[in-house]
């Protein structure tokens, strides 16, 4: 008995309808990227393993899909490592390449490798799949697309202002009104850790603070104590547990709290510039909010941090995120190259649009016109017309076999094709085409040029 076909967990097949919806999202994001002056690049699906390892932290390294060397990959492996079953050390002996984990590190590698060909500041966008050996769940897959935009070679805060506007423009065009663009700054988090004498525990502090909405004040306090942060230190940051008010009120509270920290004060000033500017310009449909618990990507973010949440009432993780990195290219030898970037979570955006019924206007893939097949002579006559229609950009199709008329018409109905052309011996003799409007049932006879105009103007 043949084995039932299947696909790996965390991957998906996409039907023509699903592809059309995804293409709609891609096209919308790509259009806005280009409007904002970004250029497109592409990088390989897999990179050298050493390019990726050590760039995402210990957990990230575990989630990288390694590619076994071709041929007898065990022949060069150290026998003592094989005997010890030391998978971590063995990996480098049997795997030299890996599927890319994200688009940011490959982009940094690209910038360093092509630095003499690039005009800085370099604004690039990239829409390609990435792979992570994560546990699959709703909105989280092992293969998924990332849609990234980055500016490298500029430390101007106007870039952050531009990215807030870019997020707002994309989600407004998608009809996804009411998203929340959360912002924080790595310098603020460092400043908070500094004033409580816990700079050496910055990661532990921010990871615990990030869980405030999930485990509450008591849970966060307990976790901080377990990580060795003193009760006195926790008392100093207690106001963060009830951090409410407008963005301006939050900025003022932070300015007071971080007055003794030069790093923290700089972070407040940077956020104030971005928030003040956006409040002056205004947004179309998104909300910008200062969220001091936001602590994503601390391994390489050095300034502003972004995260986008779906509209209220939609249960979904972040649908976008990013931030400022002062020296990401430094990992490949190009120092002091500041950059800032954001990413759109395509698959989660798709699920949100689906849940909110925002795909109604997406055109489904189908021909504009179908020629009925009555036999080889008629099909040849139709094919000549189809070539001219296609040259004018009209999606045209010939039914491939001279099946029963009912079957061919059912095909047209199921694919929602608006026009059907019937060609018999009479039409061939007269050089005409009988066009049937599938919505009205009306049938009229036309010459080819007339037929062309009717379809174009419909």
- Which CATH class of the domain at 369-457 is shown? Alpha Beta
Instruction: Determine the mean pLDDT.
Output: 90
Q: How do the strands of the widest beta sheet line up side by side?
A: 1-5-6-11-10-9-7-8
Query: What is the count of β-strands?
Result: 16
Named CATH topology of the domain at 369-457: Rossmann fold
Poorly predicted runs are none
CATH architectural designation of the domain at 369-457: 3-Layer(aba) Sandwich
Integer-rounded radius of gyration: 29 Å
Q: Give the CA-CA distance, first to last residue.
A: 52 Å
Secondary structure: helix percent: 40-55%
Quickly count the helices.
18
Report the major sheet: 8 strands, mixed
Global structural class: alpha+beta
Share of β-strand residues: 15-25%
Per the principal axes of the C-alpha atoms, what is the gross shape? globular
CATH superfamily of the domain at 369-457: Anticodon-binding domain
Pfam families: HGTP_anticodon, tRNA-synt_His
EC number: 6.1.1.21
Binding site for L-histidine: 102-104, 132, 146, 150, 296, 300-301
GO molecular function, one term: histidine-tRNA ligase activity
Structure characterization notes:
This protein has 458 residues and is α+β, with helices and mostly antiparallel strands. It has a domain at 369-457: Rossmann fold (3-Layer(aba) Sandwich). The protein has 18 helices and 16 strands. It has helices spanning 16-35, 49-52, 57-62, 79-84, 87-94, 104-113, 158-173, 186-195, 202-209, 212-226, 231-236, 247-257, 262-281, 346-355, 376-391, 405-414, 425-430, 448-457; strands at 39-40, 46-48, 66-67, 97-99, 122-131, 143-152, 180-185, 287-290, 304-309, 320-325, 339-345, 369-371, 396-398, 419-422, 433-437, 443-446. Strands 1-5-6-11-10-9-7-8 form an 8-stranded mixed sheet. It has a 5-stranded mixed sheet with strand order 13-12-14-15-16. Helix 15 (376-391) links the parallel strand 12 (369-371) and strand 13 (396-398). The longest helix is centred in the N-terminal third of the chain and has 20 residues, at 16-35. The protein is globular. Belongs to the class-II aminoacyl-tRNA synthetase family. Homodimer. This is Histidine--tRNA ligase.
